[in-house]
Amino acid sequence: MATAGGGCLASREWARIPSPRGERLARETRLEGQAMLRRQALRDLAAAGAASGALAALGGRFPSRAAAQPKPGSEGTVEKVKMSMLAMQREAWEQGVAMQALLEWGDRDGVIRLAHGALLRQYPDGRLGQVSDNHGVTDPAANGEGVLFAAKATGDGKFKEGADKMLHYLLETGPRTADGTLHHIDHKPQVWIDSLYMAPPFLAVAGAPAEAVKQIEGLRRILWNKKAKLFSHIWDDGKKAFERQAFWGVGNGWAAAGMARVIKALPEGLKAERKRLAGYVREVLDGCLKHRRPDGLFHDVVDDPKTFVETNLSQMLAYAIFRGIKGGWLAKIYLREAEVMRRAAWGKVDDLGYVRDVCGSPTFEKPGIATEGQAFFILMEAAARDFRS
Question: How far is it, in rounded angstroms, from Cα 219 to Cα 182?
């Protein structure tokens, strides 16, 4: 039987049968090979420096998480983070938050490329970026702002049509509670704090700012804990009970960052609404910051020190603070907190540009990496840059 590379299976099997001469040749070949490897190892060690030892030699070949970190503000590091983000497979909301990161960083062509991808995966009902049926109601809307930007930047009508279909789904089709608050998923009557980031910012820029504010008020009415000054994660409106009452860190980050984006997008005529939302952001910042660790990070469940230490909430809150102070609706006393959290996040970036120990995909039950962790590093840096400009 012929095989790839020529020859036949029988002759190859025959060659494996040992003979005295064959064993001697094989032994000599092995010894010579080992000598060559030793000589190469010595050359590698000499090149790396005797003091660095074998681990230093390996460090030249593999990424080292212990490498010295550049100071915050290095565009080269942001570029690495961006490239690693784009290398990751993405669900609907991940495609959307990646687009938002590129949009705020100023990567026009990158936004348009990702908008093409979101449009390619649009459901007939209008939901954007649906690479799998994860039942998302509000998650697909995270793509809306980038698709709308692509429509304006290119003049291509297919982007405007796609954004309009997404808007129609949110306004007319998506399931909601009796008071009009959108469900997060379409197969259970559940309200998630994640939705505050996914839908209201798009509603605000797509011509429905009053609906954006309405959704925030509904989510806050259902999920806000006045005593803790934190948002719970999931309410089941069918059971009239919390599915997850815990104060999930990233969930509170979604809320703070989402409201910051809405405040920026609201028209001047909605001054009272802007002021009210700014107060909501201050409250959730205060609720989170009293649980900040000395290292600038938080536990995954903000008030539960038994849960793992997580990176992304620090990035999300720093983003909201930089945007708030720059926008004139947040006091400068929060700036020190933003800088502490920003430095902590920079300390988590490895040589490949992955932001480590964020609440990790795909299950978000342990520290790891995630598109949203990459995206919020970029969003944080864009906000810090703009704050100083």
Answer: 9
Q: What is the pLDDT of residues 351-367, one digit of tens each?
A: 999 999 999 989 999 99
What domains lie within the chain, and their CATH numbers? 79-388 (1.50.10.10)
Question: How far apart are the C-alpha atoms of 160 and 168, rounded to whole Å?
Answer: 12
Both structure tokens of 116: 């093409």
In the predicted model, what is the mean pLDDT of the chain?
86
If one counts every other C-beta atom within 10 angstroms of the C-beta of residue 291, the result is 19
Question: What are the helix (H) ranges across 126-270?
Answer: 144-154, 157-168, 195-198, 200-205, 209-223, 249-265
The 10 Å Cβ neighbour count of residue 243 is 16
- The answer on pLDDT for 41 being more than 70 is no
Rounded to 5 degrees, what angle do the CA atoms 239, 240, 241 make? 90
Look at 388 and 20; give whichever has higher pLDDT: 388
**pTM of the predicted structure, to 2 decimals:** 0.82
Distance CA(202)–CA(148), nearest Å, equals: 9
Give CA–CA dist 198/324, Å, rounded: 19
Would residue 106 be called left, alpha or beta, if left means φ above 0 and alpha means ψ between -120 and 50 degrees?
left
Over residues 158-176, the pLDDT tens digits come to 999 999 999 999 999 999 9
Radius of gyration of the chain (CA): 26
